[in-house]
Design goal:
single chain; 892 residues; alpha+beta; Kinesin; 10-stranded mixed β-sheet; 3-stranded antiparallel β-sheet; 22 helices; 52% helix; 12% strand; flat; binds adenosine-5'-triphosphate
Length: 892
Amino acid sequence: MAESDTNARALNMPPPPVPTGPQKRKTLVEQAGEPIKRFAPTQPGSRPASAAGQLNSKGSIPRQASSTRPSSHAYHRNASNATLSSSIGSGYRAVSLQSQRPQSAMDASRTHKNSQGIGRPMTVFGMSLNGPGTGEVVGNPKGMPPISSCPNGNPRGHKEMVRQGSDESHVRCDSCGAIKSRAPKSAREVSLCTAMHGLKLDENSMQPAPTVAQDTPVTPSQIPRPVQASACQGGRTQNDLPRSLAPSPSKSPKKPPQPLPKYLTRDSNTEIAGWDHDSRLHQVESDFAHLKGEMSRITNERSSMEDMIDMYKTKIEEIEENRKKLISTNAVLQMDLDAVKTQLSTSHVALEDSKRYHNITIDDLQRQHRRELDDVQRDKDEDVRHELRRHQEEMEDMRRRLQKALEEEKSLRQDEVRSLTSDSVLSQQKLQLELDKQQRVIQSIRDEFQQSQAEVTRERQLSHVLRAQLSEAVSSALELETSMGSLRAHIKFLESDNKTQSQAFADLETRMQNAIRSATEANDKLRNEETLRRKLHNQVQELKGNIRVFCRVRPPSKIDTEAARITYPDNESDSREVEVLGLPEKSSLGTVTTKTNSFAFDRVFGPQSANADVFGEISQLVQSALDGYNVCIFCYGQTGSGKTFTMSSKDGMIPLAVNQIYDGAKSLETKGWKYAMEGSFVEVYNENLNDLLGKADEIDKKKLEIRHEMQKGKTTITDVTVVELDSPNKVENMLRDASSNRSVAATNANERSSRSHSVFILKLIGENSMTGERSEGTLNLVDLAGSERLSHSGATGDRLKETQSINKSLSCLGDVIGALGQGKKGSHVPYRNSKLTNLLQFSLGGNSKTLMFVMISPLQAHLSETLTSLKFATKVHNTHIGTAKRQTKTKD
Ligand SMILES: Nc1ncnc2c1ncn2[C@@H]1O[C@H](COP(=O)(O)OP(=O)(O)OP(=O)(O)O)[C@@H](O)[C@H]1O
């Protein structure tokens, strides 16, 4: 402004136009009176709102202060603003005055001073007050007008300070009405501020104050000249006015003229004309006080601004803090978001996995379903195939059987045809021989004929020679011709005999057919006769009784001592009675009598009888077994009575029975029967069942169980060794093995065989392919344990146990036979009371034929046991068991 004014004066140009209206430039005083609102929050993107910056942008006076004062304050503010702008954000650009204007030397010096810690900012007034050598000189250097402190632009500041009160310490500006403290002239040592309190502004007494300090020597140019009221406002040109009184450039020239103040009177003009140092001093002091107040206000403002800055800093820090918090929150949220995203992706993956798993499961289930369907289909196909195969096999089997039957029939027919053919061939051969013989005869006749012809020829030749002999030769020829005729007739006869032979062949064929027919009829008759035979045989056996008792007395051995007196009353080949002389008995009268015990059985065999004789009687029962009946033959008697000899010796019942069965089976083959034979050998020892054909060391360890099939009437033994008896030799081996096992199991072979029951079981299964009949019979050959009574044996310990079990089983056998003898249908038969009767359930009674051998020892020492055995056998013999049923089946 100073430069522009100077330039304006130098060029005699009017001052630059000043914006009017709302853009009116304000003075410092005006600005000091304004409330602190310069630091109102700026709009985003606006320029930094520094006071100086704002003023400069408007081109107002503060440019002078701001331009001449490199204010540290401004610098701080700019710095603060810069910090703020940098903190708040882009677009808020701090503007420094130094960046706007190059630094002058004076600025530099001031800056230097400020940099040296001088707190008070350099001002225009500071320059004046602190001028070199002047000390208290007040005024404008180089005639610069004083800066008005009046906000209304009064060129002399507050025009007149009216004294108020007695102390006159306060003055009031007649233009703006501001009351200022004013120091009294006489008390200069008192601070101007204190003096200002005594001043009083009075509008009426306001006089134009001198603007020159009292102590300052007044130059003519500095003495204000009296001005007219009009000139004060507009009657005087600017050039006429001293610079100090020149109107403020801030004042608009277009401003309407102000009314003249009252003080423009003659008196006041006189006062103005004189330079009032005191008033001037007061004026300066008041300005100084005003400036000081302004300074303090600015300082306060600065401090408040600094507070605000601090507050803003705090706010910025808070914002920074919030920002950091927000950043951290944002980071946390971002992490949460990432976690959520991760969870989401995990969930998505899990969902995808679950979906995939479900799809896989569905696929698996479908696959499994398909597989099961395939399996079912396959099973179905397999079943169908199996059924087809079974049908095919059945058909094949049937076809085979038919083929076999056909082939058998064919072979039979072929045999018959062959025999017939051989017969016919023989007859043919005979005929051929005869024919050859005849042919030889013919040949000889022919030879004779040829010889005769030769002789005829010779005779003819001779006839030529011998005419005489012609007649003889003719007659001879006739004879020869006659014989030739006869020969020809013979040949013709022979030729006709061939036809006879053919006829004979035909007759033979007819006879052969007749023979075949008659053979077939004979076979049929034979089969019928076989069936009839079986029926009759069974009827005979039934008539003989389904339970029969044979008695056999063994011969005494060399070592045997006294023999019992056993007699056979009938003494015939077919003996049935036996008498045993009992022990002597003493009667009450003292007489000793000996009773003869007579016994009658189905057959009695004396000591001379051999096993073969015995078997001759039982072979009919064996035949019954072959015919399909259950047969039980057991030997009963005391130890050493010959039971084992009768049953298991080389010519005993078992081998003989098997041999007979082989022979019978073979003879029955011609009648269409085919048999399979299975043998097993067990023993009942101490009520346990042992396998005599198994391993010797298992004989007392292997547990055999008896199983009954009540519907079929069959008994089977679990885990028992079964030998297929397809040859007679196998029976011998089997008996040898059984005997060997028995001897291993016993401490003494005789003892063991005496203390256990042995049962040979022979199953006979026959099938007749011609009639379709099927028979299943069982032959049980039982060698019972010794029947001696417990009281007589005197056994103890194991022997006692053995004897008890033997007696029990024999007693049970008697009970069973007794129950069967009662013949009550449906009555209980105690088969299960002992192992032996349980095993022989289907071979004792009802559906079976039973034969008991009662074996008798010939010794007197065994007489008591002999009598007991005979009595038991008599009981059995008196038992009548119901009719046996044959187990035959007809093939479907
Ligand atoms: N009919 C007989 N002819 C010749 N000897 C016989 C006859 N019966 C038995 N013996 C002989 O008598 C003896 C005893 O016979 P065996 O062993 O058969 O009696 P057991 O009743 O079976 O005795 P255990 O009950 O102890 O087995 C044997 O030596 C045997 O050879």
